[in-house]
Write a structure and sequence with these properties.
- This protein has one domain.
- By secondary structure, it is of the alpha/beta class.
- The longest helix is centred in the middle third of the chain and has 14 residues.
- Strand 6 and strand 7 form a beta hairpin.
- The protein is globular, with a radius of gyration of 14 Å.
- The protein starts with a strand and ends with a helix.
- Helix content is about 30%, strand content about 25%.
């Protein structure tokens, strides 16, 4: 069940190579939509190829969609009471499966974790006070 954990940096870390891809990298998830009834994702990748990871704008888009669909609460934590198998407990806490391993080029699940959401809010707030405040107000 170990999924591909996506970090907010390009360094290859934990479990052999988790990455946020540069803009323009084919296969990087750049847009995310969430069905508000089923909680299933709709993802678009750069080059419209099978996903290999997520780019920074895709990460921001995913978190905004999580909030709009009610997948996360006001603290950025996943709502585990929802009827979806996309939210699960992973090695680093709760995570959402954006793409299942059979849908990816890397043959591993691509997930976003509560830690990723927390890091996004923490790192963007100081550098973008207006956007950070808006995001924090939403979550």
């Amino acid at each position: 069940m170990a999924g591909k954990r996506l970090l907010l940096r390009r360094a290859r870390l934990r479990r052999g190579g988790d990455q946020i891809w540069d803009a323009g990298h084919p296969g990087a998830i750049e847009e995310v939509g969430i069905n508000h009834r089923t909680y299933e994702p709709m993802i678009l990748t750069i080059g419209r190829s099978r996903p290999i990871g997520i780019c920074g704008s895709g990460l921001i888009d995913a978190v905004a969609e999580f909030l709009a669909a009610g997948l996360i609460d006001q603290n950025g934590k996943f709502r585990i009471d929802l009827a979806t198998d996309r939210i699960r407990e992973g090695p680093d806490g709760y995570e959402y499966v954006l793409a299942r391993k059979e849908e990816t080029t890397i043959h591993e699940d691509i997930v976003l974790t509560e830690i990723d959401i927390e890091n996004l809010i923490r790192t963007k707030q100081p550098s973008m006070p207006a956007a950070g405040s808006s995001l924090r107000a939403l979550v």
